[in-house]
User: Fold this.
Amino acid sequence: MNLWKREGGEGGARRLVLIHGLGANADVWLPLQDKLHARWLAPDLRGHGRSPHRRHYGFASYASDVAELLEQDEEIDVVGHSLGGVVGMALGTGWFGVKVRRVLAFGVKTQWTADEIARSRALANNPVKLFDTREQAVERYLKVSGLSGLVPPSSEVAKNGVSESENKWRLAADPFINAIADLPVARLVGAMQCPLRMAAGSEDPMTTASDMALFDSAAGIIEGAGHNVHVEKPVDLCRWIQQSLI
Assistant:
């Protein structure tokens, strides 16, 4: 699996691995990358952004792909948003041969209703929607990713959320990524071999303080932020990351 990745920063031997959420790409981390004061690696997960599409998607596939980007026995800290947080939990189990010191997960949805699962799986089976112009595709991408009003249509985040196909434009992500729903968060947390810290925006519709308390009694709340904390409140999120890594 040849994941597209962005990396940089300076620091010690340990790296931060930044894992985006469902339907997004590594560019959502751009607001943080000059504030992290650490070496970092940010991939596009399979089926997202500039990485290849595949027939199968799941937390194990995502975690295995990310592990292949790392050196043997390399020690890392993982920061994951939403789905990326669950992928971080999977890496933290040790099942993928990666030495994870700590997993920081924010905006992770831990409670799913039957209707939500059904809607996600229906989305997975929708045909790829093609748009006549890039602008139309970008508008759709920003809407479905929850980034409308948070980043300009001319930004790198928006630009790499769409791709050209058959002389038309489409969302870069494979629709079938939506088949992944109701992830086994409790089982993964129970199997983790490293500490887990969780956080969410105070206005995040995906999770609440009580949801996170089941897995982290000291979960952080970032006031005034919604689901995309890393885009809305990058300074506050960086502060939480640095405090959580001490």
